[in-house]
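Re: that chain you flagged

S.,

Sorry for the slow reply, it's been a week of failed gels. I finally had a moment to sit down with the sequence you sent. For the record, here it is as I used it:
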Amino acid sequence: LTNVDACPSGSCVELTVSVSPETAKDFTVPGQYVQVRPAGDDDAKPIFLAIASPPTGTKEGEEADAAAGGAQPTFEFLIKKTDNNDWVTAGTPQIEISQVLGGGFPISDNLDGFKYDFPTQNVLLFATGSGIAP
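Prediction finished late last night. Pasting the structure tokens below so you have them in one place:
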């Protein structure tokens, strides 16, 4: 688990969490998320975090490395600091992470083939806030 500043202003952190290979395999499409809460605090309200990047250690060669005792797969999260999440953005917290949740956004369905009677040639992304949605 690492927790480092992700922007010059210090208002965001990048949280990198090691997960089991089984949990990493559950990530299949962009837009999926997990629930995170402080370790050992069953009464704590979890926060929902979108997985920022495809997990490491999920390709064939990387899976073999992890199985042989190599690097564990990791999830990365970009988190904006607020009063409600200082337990996860300050220092290096001990956390519990749920299984991968949500159907995500299967964008390959829209990009591959001829869904709209012609192939996709250009994609424009617009985002605001702490996440991006289609």
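What I noticed first: The beta strands are 2-5, 12-18, 33-38, 47-50, 74-80, 95-97.

Talk soon,
D.
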